[in-house]
Structures are given as C-alpha cells and as structure tokens.
Design goal:
- The protein contains three helices and six strands; from the N terminus they run αβββββαβα.
- The protein starts with 6 loop residues before the first helix and ends in an 8-residue tail after the last helix.
- The model has no long low-confidence stretch (mean pLDDT 86).
Length: 109
C-alpha cells in the first residue's frame, strides 16, 4: 500500500480505484526556479496524475493562506509548462467529491 502524505489523498485514491480510474501518486516533480548555479530552489510535485485524462490533480486541505501559496506554484507551473494540465481541489471541493461519489468511510464510526 502506498504511503500518502494526508488521509484525504488515500481516500481520493480509493475513490479513483472504485471508479476504475488509472492514477499515479506523485509521479513527477516540476522545477519552477533555479539559482545561478542551476540548483533547484523551487519545485512542485502534484499529488496525482490521471493518465487517461492527461491531468494532474493537487488536493489542498490547507488553510486559505497556505492554499494560496500552492495555487501560486500551480500558476507558475502553468506558465513554465503550458502543456501541463493541473486541477487544484481545495478542502471543500475534495470533501464534497468524496462525500458525493466516495464509498462510505467505514474506518470512521
């Protein structure tokens, strides 16, 4: 079983599995900025890649201030790699998606 950074990522993967949607977890890190010596100083690793849809999905369960930083990274990614499609799902969207389409969470009672 994969090690996920957050429970929401594990539940999202279960939702994808339930609907037979192929996915990869954190398959690629995109370099957003380097210093003068070429060392990476900023990078972004989206949570999921859905090959059948050619889209990356980033879940954010963070407070708004931190989520804004993440969205800034996504905008930077889209500027430097316009061919890359990324969808950011905030806390409300993620929980709503899991509630509407997910299996009941039997681990919570």
């Amino acid at each position: 079983m994969k090690e996920f950074a957050h429970t929401s990522e594990q539940r999202f993967s279960q939702l994808l599995d339930f609907y037979s949607i192929e996915w990869e977890y954190e398959p690629r890190t995109f370099v957003l900025a380097t210093d003068g010596a070429g060392r990476v100083i900023e990078a972004f690793t989206p949570d999921f890649y859905l090959p059948g849809y050619n889209v990356y999905v980033e879940l954010t369960m963070l407070r708004q201030k931190l989520a804004t930083k993440k969205r800034r990274k996504v905008r930077k990614l889209q500027t430097s790699h316009p061919e890359v499609r990324v969808k950011v799902l905030n806390r409300r969207a993620t929980l709503g998606l899991l509630a509407k389409y997910g299996k009941p969470d039997v681990s919570r009672s």
